[in-house]
Design brief:
Distance between the termini: 26 Å
Helix content: under 10%
Order of helices and strands: HEEEEEEEEEEEEEEEEEEEEEEEEE
Structural class: mainly beta
CATH architecture: 6 Propeller
Shape: globular
Number of domains: 1
Radius of gyration: 17 Å
Low-confidence stretches: 6-28
Strand content: 35-45%
Mean pLDDT: 90
Length: 309
């Protein structure tokens, strides 16, 4: 989200509720290196725990790479944004910085970062902090997802302009779909037949776009969330989709029939932003959550395995 949107949501969140008290962090949150994936026992389904040390500023983007390493983006209005590497015990270090880093995705080349303030898409090497532009002129790029066919989709959530752009590995940009108003978080279904998209402001809700080959079909509003400001999304190994409802202070769970229930509702005043299931030594049955309004990360028990990278 851009700065104006953040300020608007902060006002709405302040009106909506009280500050969060989410309980202490418990256990190591992990499954152990090299072990079969199984749910950690220190958190129950729907339970919210604070995770790790407070970060320098609020965080938004979150991604695990193919090796199970966790990265989050920290936004700083007084200086460059940071890419933080977060250990399983919640400690972190800054591994890169850029003028703007928001939504995150990983591929075999490194970490992709959407520069919402700089209109670009970056490829960041967290091993040395270097970065290069993959594409420019993207409007207000917010969220990033790689496609099953090897390109990159980037959401531009500007009102009246919002579109999902497709970026090739060579940096060529085209409009993949312009039918979801103010698109934000995105995730593909398990079979790749649908792209689920959170619309944050206009026609707020969880939308879905049928995928035929590499082309987008006609988008439909699948679940309405009114003024809850849907933000980040994730999917589990059973095909359920999870949506961070920013101003509502909730994490919603949507089943294959489009029925939405509340997984966790202890985030008022927190602004849950992006969510990702644990990988590697992190609990594969927990959603790790960034916060738009506080310098604290969180963990929510989902009770089901996320998709393994």
């Amino acid at each position: 989200m851009n700065i104006s949107a953040m300020l608007l949501l902060a006002v709405l969140a302040a009106v909506a509720g009280c500050s969060s008290e989410s309980g202490g962090a418990g256990g190591d949150g992990g499954t152990g290196g090299g072990q079969a994936r199984s749910c950690a026992t220190d958190i129950s389904m729907g339970e919210v725990q604070m995770f790790g040390d407070p970060t320098p500023t609020n965080t938004e983007g979150i991604v695990f790479d193919g090796e199970g390493a966790l990265y989050v983006s920290a936004q700083d209005r007084s200086g460059p944004d940071q890419l933080l590497a977060v250990a399983v015990d919640g400690t972190y270090e800054s591994v890169a910085e850029a003028d703007s880093i928001l939504g995150l995705e990983s591929d075999e080349r490194g970490i992709l970062g959407a520069g919402i303030q700089t209109e670009n898409l970056l490829l960041i090497d967290p091993s040395d902090g270097s970065s290069e532009e993959v594409a420019t002129g993207l409007g207000e790029p917010n969220f990033v997802v790689t496609t099953p066919w090897g390109t990159i989709l980037v959401s531009d959530d500007r009102p009246d302009v919002g579109s999902i752009l497709e970026v090739t590995r060579d940096g060529e940009v085209s409009v993949w779909s312009d039918e979801v108003p103010t698109p934000n978080g995105m995730v593909f279904s398990l079979d790749g037949a649908w792209l689920y998209v959170a619309a944050t402001f206009d026609e707020a809700g969880l939308w879905r776009i049928p995928v035929s080959g590499e082309a987008a079909g006609t988008a439909e509003k699948w679940v309405a969330y009114d003024t809850s400001a849907p933000d980040g999304v994730a999917i589990d190994s059973e095909g359920n989709v999870y949506v961070a409802l920013n101003t509502a202070g909730q994490i919603a769970k949507v089943d294959s029939e489009g029925s939405s229930t509340t997984l966790a509702d202890e985030f008022r005043g927190v602004g849950p932003a992006s969510i990702a299931f644990g990988q590697g030594d992190f609990d594969p049955c927990s959603l790790y959550v960034t916060s738009l309004f506080t310098p604290q990360m969180y963990r929510v028990g989902a009770g089901v395995l996320g998709v393994e990278k």
